[in-house]
Amino acid sequence: MSTNRTFTMIKPDAVKNGHIGAILEKITAAGFKIVAMKYTQLSLRDAQEFYGVHRERPFFGELVEFMTSGTIVAAILEKENAVEDFRALIGATNPADAAEGTIRKMFANSIGENAVHGSDSDENAAIEGSFHFSGREIY
Ligand code: ATP
Ligand code: MG
Question: Does residue 56 lie in a domain region?
């Protein structure tokens, strides 16, 4: 996968609160092109694998429970400097610390339920993108 791609999920809180359209609008207005997208729900096994790096963290159980609690939107996004620029667009993990105008500041309520996911490296963007999409689903 190209290094100008990142992977995102609109998390169950933002879906339940009706923010899919507004978040996609922010993403595309910031210059990201959607090259793959699906509306889906993570199984327990999916969430445990996807967030496997956090397995030993105290919040792991809560995180998995939340991420499987409802539907999500998963997408691969393309833009120059995608990973870093997307992390800037979503803001800090804890919405209380997120800058004004960021997606988490606008749409998230807590550190646990923080509206969106964004890959933290090119390597993880590729791993996470192929976790959710086959080559035939990426355009
Ligand atoms: P994400 O990977 O979802 O984009 P992030 O990279 O900003 O978020 P990580 O450190 O990777 O943050 O944590 C993954 C997710 O775990 C966070 O988005 C959040 O939902 C949850 N999380 C992180 N820290 C805490 C915490 N202290 N308490 C509860 N949940 C947490
Ligand atoms: Mg992360």
Answer: no
